[in-house]
Amino acid sequence: MSNTIKYVLTEDQMPTAWYNIQADLPTPAPAVLHPGTGQPIGPADLAPLFPMDLILQEVSTERSIEIPEEVRNVYRQWRPTPLYRARRLEKALDTPAKIYYKYEGVSPSGSHKPNTAVPQAYYNKKAGVKRLATETGAGQWGSSLAFAGSLFGLEVLVYMVKVSYQQKPYRRALMETFGARVIASPSDTTHAGRMILAEHPESTGSLGIAISEAVEIAAQDDDTKYALGSVLNHVLMHQSIIGLESLTQMEMAGDYPDIIVGCTGGGSNFAGISFPFIGRNLRGEANTRIVAVEPAACPSLTKGKYAYDFGDTAKMTPLVKMHTLGHDFVPSGIHAGGLRYHGMAPLVSHLVQLGQIEPIALQQLETFSAGLEFARAEGILPAPEANHAVAGAIREALKCKESGESKVILFNLCGHGHFDMQAYTDFMAGKLKDFEYSDAEVAMALAGLPSVG
Ligand SMILES: Cc1ncc(COP(=O)(O)O)c(C=O)c1O
Question: If you take atom 3 of ligand 1, which residue's CA is the nearest one?
């Protein structure tokens, strides 16, 4: 019997093309609408914010899109990433389940985010852009774009959600180390930020507000474009390299996942691990259960509405159909800062509607407890966001223990938590709490949804 712990691919085995799930959808996702006219937008409408190569990827229905050699050359520093069999965790849980995890924490910034930061910086540089403006929640995305910007000679301006700016000073320091400028959001540097501060001087910020600030800066300056770390189709496609590698690695292990688990903030790491497998489900080649885990404090998939909404608080972005809690929603200050987004990737939402994805919401304390259990067994400390995937996988493994089934579970360990020690210290001291989000609060948050005919 094999006792292999990790399945590694050589650099030559790294995929040379991304997978685009839009090619396999039985029905396309609903159109993106112009916020002024309510009509479907075209590539030209997005041109002030993104370079044309990325806009064309956004709307492409080609199944495979080649990864440029310049991007592959950067990827090769940490890719292919390892796939592990969590044998010690299986033993600790006393489960007959086989648990595998794909580990994205080996990247320079410690998460999956450079998988899209690098191509986004590359295509912007190619288009002659000088500066990128972006938002960041936990700081993982901001530090990834700062890293990618430094490689391709682009300036990077990051609006960091204020609560994370205060909780995670070292993430900010890392972004500055890579040469980025970091501003706590909401700030007085933009009209959107000043409006929010006038109404809520104590605002702790949100991803929706930080997006408004970054979009405003990009829209006003010809040399600056906007970069988003999640949600958009092209971002999800860049992350597909995670699942494509996992397909080969699971084959090496001689197993195929019965269940795939990922955490969802805007949906990118979840899509990264799951879309290549969902593609197989859609083509009738497999039948894997796909579980999306979100925080109970920001339950867009489980309590939000599938409706057209803005991607940001100041209503500057196009309208997209997604599961949303409303663009005004400001979530509680849970430590999984990257999961505190009011909406969800339209492609993930569409696949939930198609019955391809099962969403669940977990409380903060369960996820930290799962993260500690995982760390004590496997020696890797997960990011608070990734703890949601760990907790979801442990739930499935414990169900197997009850039923006696030896199911194959694969989850995405999308980042390490080395910059999140304060959160772990607080958890171990009993200072963290769960956040309940009542139906009345949901209804209130949803009251401001735009009406679309
Ligand atoms: C480690 C980590 N995981 C997950 C997320 C959530 O984003 P997404 O749902 O796009 O993967 C973030 C976002 O910042 C993150 O930093």
Answer: 385
